[in-house]
Design brief:
- The complex is a heterodimer.
- By secondary structure, chain A is α+β, with helices and mostly antiparallel strands.
- Helix content of chain A is 21%, strand content 34%.
- Chain A is built from 10 helices and 22 strands.
- A 6-stranded mixed sheet of chain A has the order 2-3-1-4-5-6, with helices on both faces. In chain A, strands 7-8-14-11-10-15 form a 6-stranded antiparallel barrel. In chain A, strands 16-20-18-17-21-22 form a 6-stranded antiparallel barrel.
- In chain A, strand 17 and strand 18 form a beta hairpin.
- The longest helix of chain A has 18 residues.
- Chain B is an alpha/beta fold.
- The longest helix of chain B is centred in the N-terminal third of the chain and has 19 residues.
- The chains are: A alpha+beta, B alpha/beta.
- Chains A and B meet through helix 2, helix 3, strand 2, helix 4 and strand 7 of A and helix 1, helix 2, helix 6 and helix 7 of B.
- Bound molecules: guanosine-5'-diphosphate (GDP).
Chain lengths: 428, 306
Amino acid sequence: MTAQAPLIDNGLLRFLTCGSVDDGKSTLIGRLLYDTKTILADTLVAIERTSQRRGLAAVDLSLLTDGLQAEREQGITIDVAYRYFTTGRRKYIIADAPGHEQYTRNMVTAASTANLAIILIDARKGVLTQTRRHSYLAHLVGIPHILVAVNKMDLVDYDQAIYERIRQDYLDFAAQLGIEDVKFIPLSALNGDNIVERGEPLNWYQGPTLLDILENTPAAHSERDERFRFPVQYVCRPQKSDDPALHDYRGFMGRVESGEIAVGDEIMVLPSQRRSRIKDIQLYGQSLPRALPEQSLTLLLEDEIDISRGDMIVRAEDGSEKSARVTRQIDAMLCWLSETPLDPQRKYVIRQTTRETKAAVGGIGYRLDINSLQQMPAERLAMNDIARISFRLAQPLCVDAYAENRATGAFIVIDDSTNNTVGAGMIL
Amino acid sequence: MSTALSSHTTLSHLDWLESESIYIMREVAGQCSNPALLFSGGKDSIVMLRLAEKAFRPGRFPFPLVHVDTGHNYQEVIEFRDRRAAELGERLIVRSVEDSMKRGTVVLKTADESRNKHQSVTLLETIEEFGFDACIGGARLDEEKARAKERIFSFRDEFGQWDPKNQRPELWDLYNARVHKGENIRAFPISNWTELDVWQYIEREKLELPSIYFAHKRPVIRKGGLLQPVTDVTPAQPGDVVEEMRVRFRTVGDITCTAPVESDADTVAAIIAETATTTITERGATRLDDQTSDASMEQRKKEGYF
Ligand SMILES: Nc1nc2c(ncn2[C@@H]2O[C@H](COP(=O)(O)OP(=O)(O)O)[C@@H](O)[C@H]2O)c(=O)[nH]1
């Protein structure tokens, strides 16, 4: 194997970068890709050419994260883009969300799959309203790890006192929001200080480099909810009458969203509350002794019970307080994503795990002013609004609080006249 | 997949990607009433077939395999395609650009114009013929800039058009495949894979590939940093210098627009070693048609290309 092929495979980490325009987000990502040698030669030639055409002296690494034609013409990034790189130890997926005021929805989208958020602060500017907003959103969407990167340290003479002041400012308001796991790092994305290599002028900083932090942040499932959650996606019934092994085969296919289960364990199916035991756990012909978080596999049960897509298999002994809630009413924080405002008179479709139901708005508790974090009364919701809301449901859903389980606590709202995804919800 | 995993073990990156792709395929099967899986015989679609096996066996695939043939494919690849579909016992539907040309729905500007971009027309005709509401494709986001922003479930209107400005937001793993009649979804289960991931998976799963993926001798012409294979459809022109070189293909597609690279790698392990240290992106090295502009893929996708 070569140096770059993973020898120790430490899985896959998804992270998100956020900052205000010009804080250096694109430069930081470009630097990470460049220093981990992910930028391939022809791409580099293309951005060198563009840099020259625009009359820039040095190669502008931020061009690497530029996206589509129209956006290139406008010179801004306006949607979420994903980038990939590997260090040989770990594979990374970066979600790049733009920093514009009006793009709450993009950040919520990018954050929904991220396990770590890098929040960029310009050392000259310190903690801004946008910093607070990004941090609140990262927290709302349940990103477990937050890394505050104080960038452009070269422009403040690498002054430790400035870094410490920003750090203290941030901690003060993070405490108000209830953000717990925050790390800090001083950087110069432009010069590459503390990205992959340490920077000589930052030698007062003793902590790990940005890449060290990325390499050692736990991947999602190892610290998630321990309760077993298996939403059924698809039921496999080969019904091959000539093959006795398959004649009565009924496999329940899905992905373990959290927790574990082993052959012989007692399970319960929601919403029916029927019980059975795990007879076999299969992956492509192979039988596994246990099912682990994030594995897609097939469960076979001892008893013939009626199960279809949208049902959820949980552990029977979890009891009522540990079991998922089966409910026809949900309270949630909702981010509105559509240009067409939410109309409380209308019915919508809600999709949660593998289940779908019609839903009516019960009431809007308040709209959150994302800058002041104040609660405001609201009749309707416009794009990028975040609100506390309740829905009444035509069919029951099997839910957990989002704060405890991102997979079973999240839902999307669909407008069934356009089929568009118009809202993103987090169950309280 | 290793059975030695214990509690709190992180899935390896390949296990994680595999699991996500299986999940996506099952969502297509669960949400759509008449999906199809596009299968070309290329390495990405060979990986897709293994993922489909892992997603649906011991059952049959809940979709047929569909290939849009330009008529300019390497014979090895076409034979491989037919053999693989037969081994799996799954239904293979082949529709050809040449039929669209006969119908008059594809009109070439010149006889030797690449048929690659005209695949879109034949694909849309095939979608209409069978009433597919979803097509599962093997595109990866790392292949090209325009793809980096495309959704995993990508909505296409009744003309097959992709509107990059008006995509459905995609949050968590909650995919929205709802469409009205005539519209459809393109689903990309291996969006999050890179070329290296694909090769590592091929090695791990010991997947068989068409022989042209491995180093072999072939007459080629050097054209602006790329190698153009000399074939019946791409013959040498007067003045061309034909060289016999050891090459392999990194992607296989229409002969007129797929270039091989110089290589001695004749095993998957050797290809992985080369891929891990390579300095040219896959499309840059191998696509004779993408060179014109950065934005050419985006333009073609808007017109219904995969
Ligand atoms: N001096 C200095 N300039 C930086 C640094 N990081 C980014 N910049 C510059 O700040 C400007 C904005 O950076 P960019 O990455 O485009 O910001 P974005 O809008 O957050 O993506 C560019 O001119 C960068 O070269 C840094 O660490 N030091």
